[in-house]
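Sat 14:20. Reprocessing the chain from the morning session after the first attempt stalled halfway. Input below, unchanged.
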Amino acid sequence: MSHSVHSLLLIAAMAAVTFFTRALPFLLFDHGKEPPQIVLRLSRTLPSAIMAMLVVYCLRELTFAAPGGWVPALTACLLVVALQWWKNNDLLSILGGTACYMALLHWFG
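Finished this time. Tokens:
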């Protein structure tokens, strides 16, 4: 199988899986009635749990041996929290935190 055919098959498979996962809730719960209570509860609790897991994942290799190992990451995290609390704008928080992290990484690196 050639490289381009293999790439096209991979793209088609990813597109099909993405479409299926996007369409599944409408297929399961679009009958004019309320979704089950577990689904409603998960829709309230899962976003916060996922964000907490992402923070733990991003900070898992934090070292305090030198300032370059912890200052950029923790400063960027504090900036993200402050921007989100102040402006309540996800894009601003993400871009501000990323820019702060990259600048501090460059400065401490």
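The chain has a mean pLDDT of 93.
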